[in-house]
Structures are given as structure tokens and as C-alpha cells.
Amino acid sequence: MTLPPVVSRDEWLAARKRLLAEEKELTRARDALNERRRAIGMVRIEKDYAFQGPDGPARLPDLFEGRRQLVLQHFMFEPSWEDGCPSCSWAADEISAGRLRHLADGDTTFAAVSLAPIEKIETYKAKRGWTFPWYSSEGTDFNRDFQVTVDDEQPVYNYRVDDLPPGEYPGLSFFLRDGDEIFHTYSHYARGTETIGGAHYILDLTALGRVS
Model-level pTM? Predict the structure, then answer.
């Protein structure tokens, strides 16, 4: 492993100030990108998706748990697997009670959805010690509609057709509830899905943004 160069305090301070200017520029660029993201609009959900949860059937509005926004992790877990995807599991290990509480303060619920049957999900969830809501989309079009199931019928992932092997892929999808209507506001796929950051960074990707 290559270590950083040894420099004088004056050299370090000058370089740090230059880097600080770049960091502020990146923050302003991220804020502007968040504004443009919220301006792309939202799409009404027309299908009545029927998920399976630990307590039985659940519709998409049920997943909001009474809040205005919903963030769903598309957790890679094919029905034939006994365990979930290692990378998705790595990300799920960081979903703490504190993060869920901070998201709730922003009127936002977090949950995971996988194609595996609910029995396998519950077994793996208990094995990992996780407490966040996790639902099965088995038997529905949900994964294919949101482009995380890739096959000959649905070859699109991350908004483009690529030479990917058939199977499940990771992502995050964001929804907004307005009265009885549900809207899809954003989805985030591929690189960066597992390292999206804390509650504020997640809220930045929602239609309503972070709490002040």
C-alpha cells in the first residue's frame, strides 16, 4: 500500500485550502443536481401490485406505513437462492434504527423488495438480524416493471439495453403518495446503489427532499 507523501504543515495547509474550494464546488453541484432531479416530474402508478409480507398480503400503499414517501431497495434475491446477494446484504447491514428514524422524520418509509418467496426472506432476515420491512414481489410484474429483473423480455437496466446476463440486479426506487394516488418519482441503479450514504443523502433523492 502506498502511503501519502510527507509534506510540511504549510504545504499541507495550502493543498487543503485548494481541496476545500473543490469540495464546496462539489456540494453546490450536488445541490443543483438535486433540484433538477425533483423537477423531472413523477409518473402515476396504475398497477395494483400485490406483495407478500410477514403478516400476509400487502399493496403498494401499505408499504408507506402512513407516510408520504417510500424508498424501496431492490434487494437481489432470486427465488432459487437460499441467501440474499452479498453486496445488497452489505448495504442492508448499514440500515440502522437511527437511519430509519431520521427517514421517518422526513415523512419517508424505507423497505426492501425481493423476488424470493417471503419464507426465504424471513429466514435470511432473521439470520442477519435485520429489522427493516422486507417484502416479496414473487408472482408480480414489479421487478420487471422497475427494470431490476433482466431477461429477453425485459433487457433494460439503468435505462439502457446492455449485454447483461439474465437475473436480478440492484437498485433503489422512490415513490410519493398524494391522497389515494401513488407516483414513481425516481430510481437509482448500478454503481453507487450500495453506498448511497446516510438519511440526508437518501432524502436528497426523494421528491420532497431532506428535512431542514
Answer: 0.92
